[in-house]
Prior knowledge:
Blueprint: E1 2-5, H1 11-24, H2 35-44, E2 49-55, E3 58-70, E4 75-85, H3 94-108, E5 114-116, H4 123-133, H5 148-154
Parallel strand pairs: 4-5
Antiparallel strand pairs: 1-2, 2-3, 3-4
Amino acid sequence: xxxxxxxxxxxxxxxxxxxxxxxxxxxxxxxxxxxxxxxxxxxxxxxxxxxxxxxxxxxxxxxxxxxxxxxxxxxxxxxxxxxxxxxxxxxxxxxxxxxxxxxxxxxxxxxxxxxxxxxxxxxxxxxxxxxxxxxxxxxxxxxxxxxxxxxxxxxxx
Length: 157
């Protein structure tokens, strides 16, 4: 698999992969991203970056990430939002390739750490993260979320 940074021309493929991962996670109904939103977010505002994996000339997976900041390390971190490989291309080491590429980027960019979240039911991914990578689950932390609507509703009180 060849891994490369996405370009503006890849926006339709990125949206397709986002919908594929959402379907896999049984969350397709939550996808509101459009090609226009992705283009603006990724290539105008540069809010995140995307790596694409190509095999035999076909885009088969992606990793979407951005930088956060740790007050404890005093450095930026690499936060992996999504990594997805199409089902028919799994179990061939492509996910590992994405992780190696991301870890190299984190090292090159002098990131203090790399983080991501994983659904509790995704046992194969959890085994890979803990057993192969040596990642430590941060299970004493709870993720909280305010949706765009919840933020807007707060100010209407």
